[in-house]
Amino acid sequence: MAAPALLALALGALGAAAVPPEGPHMSLSTSDPMVRKPFKVTCGIRGAVPATNVTITANDRALPAALSQDGLQATAEVTVTEEGDARLGCTVLVGSRKLQTGRTVQVFYVPMPLLDVASATEAGTELRGRCSMPPEAGSDVQVRVVAHGPGDLVDFTKPPVNFSLTATEEDAEGELVVTCEARMPPYSSRSKSQRIRVLVKPRLDIELCPPQQNWTEGQEGTLNCSAKGTPEPRVSCSKDGHSLIPGSIRPVYRAHAGTYLCQATNELGTAERNVTVWVQDVSDVSDVSVPLLPVLLGTLLPVAAVLLILAGGYWLYRQGKIGEYRLWKRQPPPDAQPLRPQGSSQAAAAAPNGCAAP
User: Please, which of 167, 186, 233, 251 could form a disulfide with 202 given CB 3.0 to 4.6 Å?
Assistant: First the structure.
């Protein structure tokens, strides 16, 4: 009697299965079978048997099987023309015994969708693309287009579909990915994605490249000029054929004064701006400083004059009051009350002839 055999039915993979201690074991492993695309069914056998003793079936239809040289594997090519379930089986006759294994698999075809779109676009321009399926795709396949950033561009519908989007400068700083997704319920979907590189023309903004800049001779100066853009622009500045690297620190001389032509360049083009550098001479800075003595004289003299005028006015006022008092003393009016000199008491003022009370 022949030795027991182990059957292992596999789609797209070869190899004999191990025999567990309790006896023969039959198993099935499979890749995703697809409609109208041939795939192989392999039946692994432990113990050589004649080829006539091995039968491989698909939906109860026997298929020609080829036996390996060592007699341990039988292989048949299967093509399923309709979507749905497919019954695969392997039968081996070992003496009077019939060993079988089988499995029902879902045969469908959701191939990788085709995404036709450029890998780069300029910000502010329209990007067009197409999402489609290969000719062998099933009739029930639907596709949609999704862009990470703008969101859904085209919802699930029959392929092919055309789409368009306009990338922004914000997409250049983040990530713009366009995905073509194919599905055929209830089976899993497949998708194809394309990362879009968003390009931005160079731009020299006033805050990044001020058109007027002041330096001081003898100190260190930096020409401040940078640009925006994707890819990052290269900025260069020059005057009278002499270049000055923006952002570099250098000692300042009078020769640095003047108007520089600054250019920002990337693969999309060039932006330009004139930047005027003013260099303040050290001697000019000294001349501009105000001497201390004239400042003090110009400030203190007017104040002193005002104080003298106020003091003189007060002195004249006092002299007038004293004159009035003396005149009253010499010729007092008949009905006049006695004048009380400044500093005298009430009692002294009330005494006759201005004499003080005892």
Answer: 233
